[in-house]
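Dear H.,

Thanks for agreeing to be a second pair of eyes. The structure we're designing against is below in token form, covering all 642 positions.
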């Protein structure tokens, strides 16, 4: 009969309606008939009541597979209604309930139901087979229910990497059960997981357990410093520093903040040196002073650590260079000097670095000139010429320091090439004469080095200062005749004839100039060195002897003039020289050679004045040959009373 009823219900379903037909079956307790009837229409029905009743009848008849199928595949039933029924039914097979709760997010209720009903194996089935991604929700509920930790660990290990780590960690952490995840997390890492969430959580566990956390933070490449850094701050600020340091620049602000808050200046100093980032340096060095004008104490402590510890420990030229640039950019010359002193003067791999030595001296020139001399004395590998030029510039006027540089680097141990040594020595004496205006020191220095270019440089300076005698001596030592025109002018002005003679003799060895020969003749004349004068004019020369003879004659240098006029056979002038020298007989002889009336008259008159009447008569007889001049002779005799 039941089969007939089912067939009738199927046939007249549309006319009678499913709701009335269901009531008929239920009123007659015909559960099996209801199950078969609904089974024929459920796949096509969009009536939630039909679906619910089919699930219900399936469960009542133990047809759990069919109930599971509809719960899994149907979108028609009301979830809450089905869920409540299945929970109350307490079926031996909870898979229909599992599907309903999974599909419609009743995971908490499902977990609680399965746990309280000791269906633990189905919890494991759910998270491993049905929905591994909802493992965190299941675990969270189990935590809340006080479930056995070993069971939770077991299901986590069973799910493995299918469980979303971030959500799982958050749920465990909010319940203070993070340590329970350790085996699961370590297993994930062992399989090659690089998810930051996995490594973040494992890091938190190791940090909490103090299980070599520094090694983890230093060596692990996958955790997020922005997660572990803040986590460490309240536990151990030094670990937070390590974590932020791992951020490779992304956590610089946090790193600076924690360093200042907890006084981690040494760690920060080392980090700054290693990072080689000028922008980062600017963040910590470019700080304004406090309101009362005092230096920021945090910056001072940091700078002290950089200078005293971090940079001297570095063996990287790039690190040193970047740090130095940072101090320069921050305009900290005093601190830069201290920093460079620590690197260079107190021994490091960079003690002989030329650029650093240059920078130390230049910084001292700009900021603390009292240190410059000491640095020049102590340092041996800097650009001597360039720095010396800066020292003597108008902005600095460090003349003694420049002189010291030139003197030091003119020595063979610093400058091997002889020409370069002499160039340095010339520059050294140049400072003495041009800037210090100390000719005495310059002369002493020239005597010490005894190099011709040095003497020459001194001579020019002495000449400028009207020290003609000293200049002549210097030019002689230099064997330098180049300034002969000026030397001659100054010698004439200073009337230093004896001193100028050696210079002129030296100059004639390399130069053939009229002025040189003429001035040498004049100097011999002025010093009454007649032997040398006669010897000189008798030899080859390019002097203007007539001119210099006239000059000597006009200045009363008659002996010299006599030699000169004799040399050029100017007997007229020679006769006059003899007259002035009271050599009347020689005057008559010269007049005879000259044989001109003017000369005869001059000699005649001179002889008359001297009482040399016989010689005067000889001259007068010659004048008589010129009738126009006879009266002049007669008158001269008469005037003298003869």
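And this is the sequence the design step returned. I haven't edited it by hand at all.
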């Amino acid at each position: 009969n039941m089969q007939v009823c089912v067939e009738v219900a199927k046939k007249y379903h549309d006319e009678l309606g499913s709701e009335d037909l269901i009531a008929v079956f239920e009123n007659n307790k015909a559960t099996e008939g209801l199950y078969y009837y609904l089974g024929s229409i459920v796949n096509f029905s969009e009536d939630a009541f039909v679906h619910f009743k089919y699930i219900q009848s399936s469960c009542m008849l133990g047809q759990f597979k069919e109930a599971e199928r509809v719960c899994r595949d149907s979108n028609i039933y009301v979830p809450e209604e089905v869920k409540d029924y299945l929970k109350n039914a307490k079926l031996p097979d909870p898979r229909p309930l599992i599907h309903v709760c999974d599909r419609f997010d009743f995971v908490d209720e499902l977990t609680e139901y399965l746990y309280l009903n000791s269906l633990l194996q189905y919890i494991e089935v759910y998270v491993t087979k049905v929905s591994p991604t909802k493992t965190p929700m299941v675990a969270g509920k189990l935590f809340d229910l006080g479930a056995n930790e070993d069971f939770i660990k077991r299901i986590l290990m069973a799910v493995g990497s299918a469980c979303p780590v971030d959500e799982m960690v958050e749920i465990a952490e909010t319940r203070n059960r993070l340590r329970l995840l350790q085996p699961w997390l370590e297993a994930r890492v062992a399989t090659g997981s690089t998810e930051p969430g996995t490594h973040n959580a494992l890091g938190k566990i190791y940090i909490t357990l103090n299980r070599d956390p520094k090694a983890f933070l230093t060596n692990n490449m996958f955790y997020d410093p922005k997660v572990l850094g803040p986590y460490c701050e309240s536990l151990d600020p030094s670990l937070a520093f390590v974590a932020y340091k791992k951020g490779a620049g992304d956590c610089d602000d946090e790193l600076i903040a924690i360093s200042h808050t907890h006084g981690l200046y040494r760690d920060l100093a080392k980090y700054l040196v290693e990072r080689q980032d000028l922008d980062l340096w600017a963040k910590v060095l470019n700080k304004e002073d406090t309101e009362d004008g005092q230096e920021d104490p945090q910056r001072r402590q940091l700078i002290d650590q950089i200078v005293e510890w971090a940079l001297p420990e570095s063996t990287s030229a790039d690190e040193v260079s970047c740090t130095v640039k940072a101090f320069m950019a921050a305009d900290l010359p005093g601190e830069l000097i201290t920093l460079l002193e620590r690197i260079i003067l107190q021994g490091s791999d960079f003690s002989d670095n030329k650029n650093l030595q240059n920078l130390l001296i230049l910084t001292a020139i700009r900021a603390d000139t009292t240190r410059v001399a000491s640095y020049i004395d102590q340092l041996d590998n800097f650009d001597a010429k360039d720095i010396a030029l800066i020292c003597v510039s108008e902005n600095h006027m460090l003349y003694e320091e420049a002189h010291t540089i030139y003197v030091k680097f003119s020595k063979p141990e610093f400058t091997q090439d002889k020409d370069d040594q002499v160039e340095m020595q010339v520059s050294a004496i140049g400072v003495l004469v041009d800037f210090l205006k100390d000719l005495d020191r310059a002369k002493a220095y020239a005597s010490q080095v005894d190099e011709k270019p040095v003497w020459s440089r001194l001579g020019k300076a002495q000449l400028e200062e009207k020290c003609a005698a000293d200049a002549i001596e210097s030019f002689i030592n230099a064997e330098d005749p180049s300034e002969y025109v000026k030397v001659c002018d100054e010698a004439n002005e200073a009337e230093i004839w004896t001193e100028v003679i050696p210079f002129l003799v030296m100059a004639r060895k390399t130069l053939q100039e009229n002025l040189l020969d003429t001035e040498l003749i004049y100097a011999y004349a002025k010093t009454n060195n007649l032997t040398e004068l006669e010897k000189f004019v008798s030899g080859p020369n390019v002097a203007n002897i007539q001119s210099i003879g006239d000059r000597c004659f006009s200045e009363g240098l008659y002996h010299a003039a006599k030699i000169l006029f004799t040399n050029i056979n100017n007997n007229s002038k020679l006769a006059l020289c003899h007259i002035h020298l009271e050599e009347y007989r020689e005057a008559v002889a010269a007049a005879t050679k000259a044989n001109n009336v003017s000369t005869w008259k001059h000699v005649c008159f001179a002889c008359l004045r001297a009482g040399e009447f016989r010689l005067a008569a000889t001259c007068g007889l010659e004048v008589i040959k010129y009738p126009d001049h006879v009266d002049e002779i007669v008158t001269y005799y008469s005037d003298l009373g003869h």
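Two observations from my side: The chain has 43 helices and no strands. The chain has a mean pLDDT of 92.

Warmly,
E.
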